Structures are given as structure tokens and as C-alpha cells.
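During the reporting period, we have paired protein sequences with C-alpha cells. One record among many follows, to show the layout:
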Amino acid sequence: MSEDDVWTGRKAHSARVYDYIIGGKDNYEVDQAAAEDSLKVWPGLRDSMLLNRATMRRMGHWLATEAGLRQFLDIGTGIPTEPNLHQVVQHVAPDSRIVYVDNDPVVLAHAAALMTSTAEGRTSYISADMHRPEALLDHPDLHATIDLGRPVGLTIIAMLQFVEDARGLIESLTGHLVSGSYLALTVPTHELAPESAALARTYTDLGIPMYLRGRAEIEGWLGGFEVLDPGVVPMSRWRPEPGDPVLPDDATNMYAVVARKP
């Protein structure tokens, strides 16, 4: 199938499959069928995806409050699902500036939802290929929104499973960030939920190649960074808030980590 098959709904697409599983409406029957196939392999996938959204919110809030960041770069944004990152950080720091990046026309069609900023801050959406980080980092809209001479919070949430050379991407992006910047990741793994490997095969068979990573590999990406406590952990263990449910490790198929560039 061609890329046109993806955009017109003749082939499943990862962003729309995700959207359907977490209760969104921006998907086609082919995406719904792919999502249902995935849920048959692992019924816990929906809970894990919802936990991923909750982890993003905790990370964004921590970066804006405890780390004091006011600039954010979100790679692989996906179809907007409230609250989006800018809503999380601008709620506590209205002057925050956020750049969203995706090269998916499905996401672009909904980008207006990512552009609603506070009067004090700013948000922008860049249609760019994350596999070409140099072009992204030279994009005029990025430089019109954030200043790479100041610390930035780089967030890559549930996206690196679709990138074969994840280390190379991280190194290219973080190499342009100044000291005091932060990297926040959630990364699918085969080490937690026992159904993860079968789930990855299901996605790959649907034409959406998926690469799972272990904790040691993820830690290897963070050489030279100061990894914050509690380290690379199942998402439910990353700084849970009072009252959050205590979940077993196999309730998720993703690790979470935040690290600081010294």
C-alpha cells in the first residue's frame, strides 16, 4: 500500500489506532479493526496507554514546576488528546512556550488544537520528519517559538518504538540542547507485560514496525545525562501522585525516565 492508503483510511495508522484505543473519535474502521486485534493480544493495552497519558502529565508538571522549565519541544506529538502538554505546563507556568513536532498529515489535520496558547506563552506546530533532526532544528518556526540557547524540556512520549535508530535520534536532538535541559521519555519494552512481544508482532504485521527496548538499552541512551530518581522504571513508578493506584509492573508495557543534561 502507498502512503495515500494510510491517509485515506485504507491502511491502519499508529496515531489513529492509539486514538481509538484511548477513546478518541479521529479514526477509521481499519484503525478500529487493528486496535481490536491488538486488544485481543493484550486487553491491558488500553490501561497502559491511558497510564502513558497520565505519566506525560506528571512529567510535564514536574518539568514546569520543580525543574522550572519554560520551553518545551515535543517530538512525535500524535493526535491531540486533552490535556495536551501545553495545557499541563501553561496551567502552572502561563508563560511557557511549546513546539509540537510530527510529520503525520493525520496529526496536521488536528493541529489547530495544539495552537491554543495562553496570552503570556506560545505554542506552535511544525510538520517535520523526526528522522531528519537537523532540518527540524533549523526550522524557522522552532526558533520563532523557543530559544535553543536556554534550557528546553525535550519530550518523546510513546514514540521511540517506531524508530529503529532511537539512540541516534536522541543524540542528534540532545546535542543541540544547552546545559540544564531535560529529556523525558516513555518507551515500550518487552520486559514488563508478557504480551508485549506478541503485541509488537501484531503491529508489525499490520505494517507498523515496532521496536521494543530493554532497560539496559534505554540506560545506554542516557550516557552523559544525570538520570533523575527513580531512574528507568515502569510508568506507574515514575513519581506517582498521592492517591494514584498502585499498579503491578506488568500493568504497563512502557518504561519512563527523565534525565538532565549537565
